[in-house]
## 1
Amino acid sequence: MSDVTSRTGDNVVQVHEQLRTAILSGDVRPGAKTSQAELARDMEVGRTPLREAIRMLQTEGLIVTEPNRRVVIASLSIEDAEELYLVRIALEVAAARVTLPQLTEADFAELEGYMAQMTHLAGGGPPSLALFRAPHRAFHERFVGGAGRRSTRLVAELFDHSERYRRVYGSINPVEYDKRAAEHRAMLDAAIAGDGDALADALAAHYVATALLVTSALDPDYPLERLRASVAAVAPGALYAFG
């Protein structure tokens, strides 16, 4: 590979990560329309790596392209939110069941530490909430890390996509955080007990609660039939979370 080709590849990775981060963080708002030329100018990047980065993000579902090189940032919708949590529950419940026998006392100690960090950061205002995401992500990743690289990569992508919704519709407040903390506690207690069914139910119930928080803001009357069917199939003990 020539030095020029290598530099181009590096640029594509950098541009992809820069634009992806802007979309996931909300710096580029959902539904926004722009053009490749405008994006290249605003990001101060070349057209060639930008085109490839857009193609990658289109495959991931974060960008929709239109004729004449128009670029549309994927909108937030209740249908997409339901599908997102449907897939997350199905995949992460399976991954958690595979991972559970591999967890050690050291893992449980680290999970306790992540919970302590989340509790500390949840009460610290906006700056601390930005830091909250790291232990929160690490907590959830520990429950699926034994399922293999393909699974963990998909889980990470879905976690990122969920973050778009949580940032807009799932702001942490003391009441909601107490509920989420109890759900995390239930997951960890089930794992410590080695109870795969209880872990599956606790994990699914946690995501149902988050999904309800998001979807109720979008459309409180939406029936969530697909999400309910997914939970019934993989963790029926979590159906109570629908209320």
## 2
Amino acid sequence: MTSDPVILILEDERAQILSLRAQLAGLGKLAEFMDPERALEHLRTHPCDAAIVDVGMPRSSMDGLAFLRALRQFDRDLAVIIRTGSESDQIADGAIEMRAIRRLVKAKATLAELRASTREAIAETRERRETTRRARDSQETQAKLVEALGAYDLRLAAADVHRGLVHALRNQLTALSALAAVLQDDAAAAGSRAALQHARQSAELVGSMVNSLNAFLDSPFGDPNSDSRAAVNTCLDALRQFFRGAQQWAAEGKSVQLRALLSDTLVDCAPLEFVNGIRHLVEYALQHAGPGGEIALSAAIAHSPEQIAGRLAQSAYVLNREAVRPGHPYVVLRTTGFAPALSPEEVRDAFAFGPQSGRTGNLNVLGQVLSAARGAVLLQRPAGASLALEIFLPVAL
């Protein structure tokens, strides 16, 4: 339930405060002040929903416009109504500059106008504060997403190193197992029962370790893509938030438009790898977009073999063509908005020979994701149009 509004009144005449108290009855709680300094101190620690401020306060240390200027140093959302006995344009201009929403001339303002203006100020303040809160929360969320997505490469690199070490350990154990078999044969030929027992125990121990490692590497824990599926729309929404928080591209006047599927669909790709790979794709496109360019990423589904064959036939290059199964449905992520000067050959080479590391726009990362997910890349350049990329990812059935 919405709490009662709090209306601050700043007037240096007691009679004016009593008059306003009667005129504003029923609109909310009143915080009444005759001293601007005390009113400012109150506002620093007690949020209000509206303020009615007298401009001319000769008995005080500052007038109403100076009060507004001081207020805006720490609160830009509070809606303020200024009251004055003058119709001076200079006063009106100063009030507008300090984001006052209304000026009421004391001798002319009616009771209805005062009450209507106060209601408007309360609504304006609450709307401003909600907008500010959402912006603050959005910025915090975006910052966390930027940090999280920026760390994906490091996490993936650590996971690759771990899997590589486990594979290397299995190879070493396999070599030890072979050596234990040789020791067994030698011990049997020499007739040494102690050596034969030692060799058998060694072979059993190493064999057990190799079997355990094989079971680990064949399980989902050994392969992060195994038995892991990404929800396309959920991942695209995370990317949308990420690019809203990426100030680099906004500073260059570049933007990203993402269009999701009509209903969310799972693809045979780990969510982490999906988000990371598509992020690099969009960043690569942004790097090669012209000033103020807009990159569009739209998702669709290709069901029929005819649709898939048609897209393959229209493409200048198809990377990982052998992974495409015509009878299988695919989610197609189409990216457009590249600079016209960029050729399909340059993009193809970026996938194949791009840097093995890099935090931004590294197509090599996407290539690894597609290879693991049995996806493909289609490079197209329609006549007279900019380059288009289509990413094929198999739908999880």
## 3
Amino acid sequence: MSKIIQPNMKLQQFKILPISLLAIATLAQACNSNQKKDSADSTTMTAHNMGHGAATGDTTDNMKNGTPVNRFFEEASISGMVEVEMGKIGQKKASMPRIKEFAAMIEKDHTEANEELIKLATSKNFKLPVELPALKKEHLTDLNRATGKDFDNYYINMMVEDHISDIALFEGATKSPDAEVSAFAKKILPVLQKHYKQAREISLLFDQNKDRK
């Protein structure tokens, strides 16, 4: 009986051995693959962190040195043109008298600011944009399509959002090393803050009126 079992045991051992070696080899390959993946992930994360750090450094430098003059001129010009157009649209289409009055103030104040900006940019040989980017035109088109209370709501919310961006832009420009740019930004900033405050007040009033209905 033992002579018959012995060959089968050897055969089983012979069959098990390659399978065990294959399992070990597969495990080793998986470990090696994981090590490479971890290394690649680590490299990718390091590169991401380096890039993020570089961006953070740029932001810090911009905060210290103020908004770059060329970027300020371009963005302030586009923003100013948008505000004037929105002021005109608001006076025509708003259903709330207070929004019509607000829109008239927006057109007047931003027209004056735009004229000063043009003079300042011209004195520094910077050519301002003469038309709005496509995305801004789309926003104005969407606004023009709205009517009644929908228009009022859309309009005043856009004014709140736009003036948040405007204030951030001009706050950066107040730190500009260019004394004339800094002085202009400091002059216009309180006007933008007044616009934002009034837009928020109207927005809250609009929301309260909707809740009552």
